[in-house]
Amino acid sequence: MSARAASRVPVPSRTRLDATMAFDAPASQVRQVSPARAEALRKRGVQTVRDLVCHFPRRYIDLSSVLPAAHARIGDACTVRGTVHEVRLKRPRLRMSLVEVSVVDDSGVLMITCFGQPWLADQLSAGMRVAVAGTVEFSYGFKRMTNPFIEVIDDEADALGGMIVPVHPATERITTAWMRRLVRNALDHVEGCLDPLPLSLRLRHGLMSRGAALRAIHFPSSMTEAARARRRLAYEELLLLQLELMTRDEGRLVDAACAHAVGGVRARSFVDALPFALTDEQRAACAQIDESMASPRPAHHMLLGDVGTGKTVVAGRSLASVADAGTQGALMAPTELLARQHAASLGPLFDQAGVIWGVLTGSTPADERALLLERVAAGVVDVLIGTHALLEPDVRFRSLTLAVIDEQQRFGVHQRAALVQKGACPDVLLLTATPIPRTLALALYGNMTLSYLRARPAGLQRRETRVLTRQTRGVAYDAARAALTRGERVYVVCPLVGAAAAEKRAERAGKGPRQGDAPDEEERAFPEVAIDSEDDLREVEVASAKREAAFLQQKVFCDHAVELVHGRMAAAAKQEAMERFRTGRTQVLVATTVIEVGVDVPEATVMIVEDADRFGLAQLHQLRGRVGRGGRESWAFLVSSSRSEAALARLAAMEGSDDGFELAAFDLSLRREGDILGNRQHGASVLRLVNVVRDAALIEAAHADARALVDADPQLQGPEARVLAREMRLAFAAAEREGEGR
Ligand code: ADP
Ligand code: MG
């Protein structure tokens, strides 16, 4: 209570330690945070003083670049500073208020019109000095601004240190102006706090102190200062996240980790058995994985590569190394189709290399399963390939030392953990086709070692992508028919998003284009079809897929066999359908996103994606990776009737680039800051000021610094490291609160 009564200037007797501890005191200890305001803040996830000083401005209004009213150009956004000449409150209609203010400076007059803010009439009066920021209009003979930002230039505004006004996110009960006041009081409360960043790091990167940075990010004297403050605080966020990620694994049983003897006879025979030579990148990835597998620390490696870059054989070779070590490996894939495909492609190679393997999925017959599990538990089977079926409690390994997870992003955290728990402390190898740029990967997976496969092995042919509209989709059908007469095969993909899609398709079969179907911008800003679980498909969607297949069979591909595969089919039926397509008994496969992973049919050369705007870029890219695998020229047609500019820009990007990494970077640049890290990973929510596109150098620096700190002091126990570790824990707790408040 006494703290609330404290004056704005910090009490001199307060020590550095007190100020530092004050960060984690309840926000109600801050001056002017009444119980009611504390409650309003709490609803926003702001509970402590730390939360309040980390309640960063959403933007700034720069009142320092002022123009004389006479020079303010119509249509431009600018700031004018002057004296209030007259204030008039009008009520032209019931429940409508309008405040008209005339502002004069040496050059002329500016009229201000403010709707719905009757209180302005009380706050402003003739003779006051004000700064107004807004867009200049011209009407009734005057330059005007409607609802501009108005700042009274009094002592307080001068105290803002220059004329940069921060706009803090407000709450229902606390206005921006009040928030500004409360944040300022909170800053006073922690004045003189200790800086958790070691001085050596601050000097190396030219970073301001924490206290100065916090004050400057809220109340900068220039935009440059705000940028410097942000950089300092962003670095801190990154360093703490990296430390968190890197020390998270320290609890694992490090002693139990297997230091694999790599490069043994089976690994070599596996490579010899390949019908092709590994690419340089594949060999580099193998070497990097070998290095982490050979280390006595538990390996945590991620292999990132676009579809078709050949991740599978790299993983296969690592699994062969495990057999050399006399222990066991597991390869888990997200779908039955994919698991079977891995078995079909890796199995013969394992056989030649003397690696004993088995495959386990949900449809493995019970007797076969029992026998297999027995052999796995006895350690007879070196490598077990499978689906989620591997996670069943009765699947026991004698000694699992390498867990490989293919398409890792398709599994949940718990599923990945469940596989890892099948061993004492297995090395983990994650494969992903989601092209995550290195900086983002570092931010999200700073604890992992990373290898990239960027180029497709030679022999994979050119692939062309074209965007078509509903009216021009005949081009795709023509190309598909031409391919079919050459004996090639065709995919048609329907995103199947609820009744809307069904409706559209029915309509297309019947009437012409619908009138006025302007896309809902909000909904379509980032349309991602999240059908991760095949069970998500509803009956209605299946029915619409059936209609699409029937339409194509009857109207488009009359001379060829069309078959439908969808998520509601039993695994066995799906597999049979796929088999017919693979062997060429059917030539056109109509599918939902089921084929996104798990299909490798070299003869497939044409893919038509309906309602392509409904897919995310990454998903589209992964989809089209299904054609052009057999060395023949191939085409992906993206059909969309969207008129949303954003959607069309994304499709145009698909047309313009065949490189998943380039697309990912483009995708990132489209997103709003907060969306980039989104819900991807819990830890990343501490990154509130970081922009993974712009802050690449900062991310690399923080990653390297954290690595060095953890290598030197794994438990973070030294005097400097201890301070950082404490901050790390508190920052994560705060990020969690904020997450709840959102
Ligand atoms: P992904 O990275 O998408 O999982 P795959 O591992 O399925 O890619 O490989 C795609 C195709 O490329 C497979 O048919 C595979 O046999 C082939 N492949 C992999 N490595 C090479 C190579 N070095 N040279 C030629 N073909 C390769
Ligand atoms: Mg793959």
UniProtKB/TrEMBL annotation:
Sorted UniProt keywords: ATP-binding, DNA damage, DNA repair, DNA-binding, Helicase, Hydrolase, Nucleotide-binding
Write out the ranges of the annotated region (Disordered).
505-524
Q: Which Pfam families match?
A: DEAD, Helicase_C, RecG_dom3_C, RecG_wedge
| Annotated GO MF terms | ATP binding; DNA binding; DNA helicase activity; hydrolase activity
Domain Helicase ATP-binding residue range list:
292-453
The biological processes this protein is annotated with in GO are: DNA repair
- Domain Helicase C-terminal per the UniProt entry, residue ranges: 521-674
Q: Which SUPFAM superfamilies match?
A: Nucleic acid-binding proteins, P-loop containing nucleoside triphosphate hydrolases
Q: Which InterPro entries match?
A: DEAD/DEAH_box_helicase_dom, Helicase_ATP-bd, Helicase_C-like, NA-bd_OB-fold, P-loop_NTPase, RecG/Mfd, RecG_dom3_C, RecG_wedge
Name the chain's protein.
Probable DNA 3'-5' helicase RecG
PROSITE patterns (UniProt xref): HELICASE_ATP_BIND_1 (PS51192), HELICASE_CTER (PS51194)
